[in-house]
Amino acid sequence: EESERLSRLIANVLQLARIGRDALVLEPRAIAIGALMAMVRERVATQVERAGFAFEVDCATEAEILADPDAFVQIVINLVDNALKFSANAAQQRILIGCDVMERNQLCVRVRDFGPGIPKVQRKRIFDLFYRGPEAKANAISGTGIGLALVQRLVQAMNGKVEVTDANPGAEIRIVMPMRRAP
C-alpha cells in the first residue's frame, strides 16, 4: 500500500516537473469514457476497498472524450485518493463517480465524497501548488499539496476545466472534457 502511494507521488512530481519546464507531452485521442473508467476502477479498487469505502461508478454512456488516457486516469486517481484522505472519518464512507453529457459537446465527470466538504473560501486555493488547507494540517492528513494542482494543470492541458462544488455532505470535483462523439 505504501509503495503504491509512493509510486503515485513520484508520478505526480514527475508530471509537475514536466509541466514546469514545458516538457509535458500529452497525446489526446478519442477514447470511450467507459474504457477510461474501467482503467480507473482497476487501479483504485483495492485501495478503496482497503480503506473500507463503497465505490460506485455510474458512467453509463457511450460518449468518447478527447483525452490522453494515462493523464486522465492519473487525474481521477488523484481525486479518489483525495476523497479517501479527506472523508476517512465521514459517516458515509462512499465515493461516487458519475458522468453527464453536457451541451456544446462536453462530458462532465464527477467525483464525490461524503466528508466535511471544502469551505467556499478555500475552493479556489485548493488547486494552488503545495496548498494544504487548515483541516489537513489540523487533522494531520498526509499529503504534499500537489495532487489537485496537477489535476488542474493536466485537465487544462487537454482543453478541459475543473471545478469544485459543495455536495452537502462532502465535496464534488467536476471535470469537463471535450467529447468527440456524443452517445
Please provide a brief summary of the model.
With 183 residues, the protein is of the alpha+beta class.
Task: List its salient traits.
183 residues, alpha+beta, 5 helices, 7 strands
The biggest beta sheet reads: 7 strands, mixed
Rg over C-alpha atoms, rounded to the nearest angstrom: 15 Å
Helix content: 25-40%
Number of helices: 5
Q: Kindly, what is the distance between the CA atoms of the first and last residues, rounded to a whole number of angstroms?
A: 37 Å
Work out the number of β strands: 7
Order of helices and strands: HEHEEHEEHHEE
Q: Which spans have pLDDT < 50 for at least 5 consecutive residues?
A: none
Mean pLDDT: 83
- Amount of beta strand: 25-35%
Inertia-based shape: globular
Category from helices, strands and their pairing:
alpha+beta
Describe the protein's architecture and organization:
This protein is an alpha+beta fold and 183 residues long. The chain contains five helices and seven strands. The protein has helices spanning 2-20, 33-50, 69-86, 134-138, 147-157; strands at residues 29-32, 54-58, 64-67, 94-102, 106-113, 161-166, 171-181. Helix 3 (69-86) packs antiparallel against helix 5 (147-157).
Topology:
Elements: H1 2-20, E1 29-32, H2 33-50, E2 54-58, E3 64-67, H3 69-86, E4 94-102, E5 106-113, H4 134-138, H5 147-157, E6 161-166, E7 171-181
Parallel strand pairs: 2-4
Antiparallel strand pairs: 1-3, 3-7, 4-5, 5-7, 6-7
